[in-house]
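Notebook entry, cofactor series.
This is the third protein in the set we're modelling with a bound small molecule. For this one the ligand is zinc ion. I'm keeping the input format identical across the series so the outputs can be compared line by line later. Sequence and SMILES below, as received.
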Amino acid sequence: MINEPLLNLNDVFNLEDDFPLMLISKTKIESQNIASCIQTHSSNVQYIDKPGVYKDTDGIVTHLNNKIPLVIQTADCVPIFILDNNKGFIGLVHSGWKGTSKSIILSALSIFFDRGSDANDIKVYLGPCIKSCCYEIKNDVAKFFDEKFLNKNKNQIFLDLESKIKSDLLSIGVKNSNIFKSNICTYENKNFCSYRRDNKKAGRMYSIINL
Ligand SMILES: [Zn+2]
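Returned structure with ligand:
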């Protein structure tokens, strides 16, 4: 699994640049071989066996034999990397507050299970994202989450996306010891892209999974 979402990509390229060209120049991955998503903060996840750009989906799953690097983009949302090294499936999911509240991770894992994966073999990595230290929300968002995923003090509510995702994973039998996460909060670490910090000027982090 690669957690190297081309960290400084936006220092080198403008967002308007052609994304596949960026990948070629930075990773030597060939653009015609990748699969990416036009993300819509949905809970849609697709199994794919051909490279290309997939519409209205926020997660993609494939088999390693297809040799398709999967790509998603985030700026504060959680990039979730999924691996079943036994059956040979990989997946990549974009999980913002909407996707997390709709348990997009479970949509992704249902594809793994439908294809024969065992929960014991699933490994998951939650990449750099905005963490509960910095992710202040209002009631319009908080109402979609169980209290246990909210950290409240007097006038503020902070959302813990990672703990909701982890709770979903544990609920379907993924082992705690197979759940990994980055220590980086994208809001705090200026090497990472944060929509909350930089608003419309924010770049995007590209996460790639390719074994
Ligand atoms: Zn933080």
